[in-house]
Amino acid sequence: MAERARGRPRSFDREAALDQATWVFWERGYEATSVAELTRVMGIGAPSLYAAFGDKRALFEEVVERFGERFGLFIDRAVAEEPTASRAMARVLREAAAEYTTPGRPPGCLVASAALNCPVEEVAAGLRARREGNVRAFERIIRQDIAAGLLPAETDAAGLARFVGAVLQGMSQQARDGVGRAALEAVAEAALRAWPAAP
User: Fold this and answer.
1) What is the DSSP string of 56-120?
2) CA distance linking residue 171 with residue 41, whole number of Å
3) Cβ–Cβ under 8 Å, residues 88 and 145
4) Is the pLDDT of residue 7 over 50?
5) Which among 16, 34, 149, 183 is placed 20 to 30 Å from 160, CA to CA?
6) Residue 114: what pLDDT?
7) 84 CB-contact burial (10 Å; exposed 0-12 / middle 13-18 / buried 19+)
8) In what residue span(s) does the HTH tetR-type domain sit (predicted)?
C-alpha cells in the first residue's frame, strides 16, 4: 500500500487570499493591519497564513510585489515608451490622477502610504527604496533630455526628478483624503507648468 502523503493540503486559493491581503494593506497600511484581520479577510487560520506566506512582513513584501505588477506599472511604461522626459512625466502625472482614484479599489498608492508611522524600519526602507527607484528613473531620462538639448543645460536633473516624485506622493495622499480625479488632474497640470521650457 502506498504511504499516504503527510500533512493537510492547502484548502484555500492562495492567489485570492493574496488579493485580499493586498486590499487590506492598501487600505490600512502595514502597522495598522493585524494578523487577525488578515486571516479574517483571507479566510484562513493563522497556521495556514504562516505556512503559505511566512510572517506578516513576508506577506507584506509579497503584497508589494503584486501591487507593483498589477497597479504600479503605469510609471515604468511611461518612462520606457515616451520619447522625452517631458512627455513621460506628463503621462505619469496624468495617469496617476486616474490610477489613484479608480473606483472599486482603495485610493492612492500602497507604496506611497503603506508604511506611514511604521516602526519596522525594514518595511519602511523597502518602500522608500521603491520610491527612490522611480526618482532615479526620472532623473535618468531628464539627463538624457539635457544631453540631447531638449532641456536647458542648467536644469537640475536631480531636483526636477524629486519634484515629480514629491508631486506623485502628494497626489496619492490627496486621493486618500478623498480628493477626486478632476482635482488631481488639475494638480498634475499645475506641476507640468513648472517644467522647464526647451532652450
Assistant:
1) HHHHHHHHHHHHHHHHSHHHHHHHHH-SSHHHHHHHHHHHHHHHTT-TTS-SS-HHHHTTTT---
2) 28
3) no
4) no
5) 183
6) 83
7) middle
8) 11-71
- Buried b / exposed e along 42-62 (16+ C-beta atoms within 10 A): bebeeebbbebbeebeebbeb
Q: What are phi and psi of 172, to 5 degrees?
A: -60, -45
Mean pLDDT of the chain: 90
| pLDDT tens for each residue of 108-131 | 999 988 877 677 788 888 889 999
Neighbours of 166 (CB within 10 A): 12
Backbone dihedral angles phi then psi of residue 155, each to the nearest 5 degrees: -60, 135
Confidence grade of residue 60 (pLDDT, cut at 50, 70, 90): very high
pTM comes to 0.87
Rounded-to-integer distance, Cα 89 and Cα 26, Å: 24
Closest to 167 in 3D by CA, of 86, 112, 103: 112
Write the single-letter amino acid at 121.
E
According to the model, what pLDDT value does residue 10 have?
52
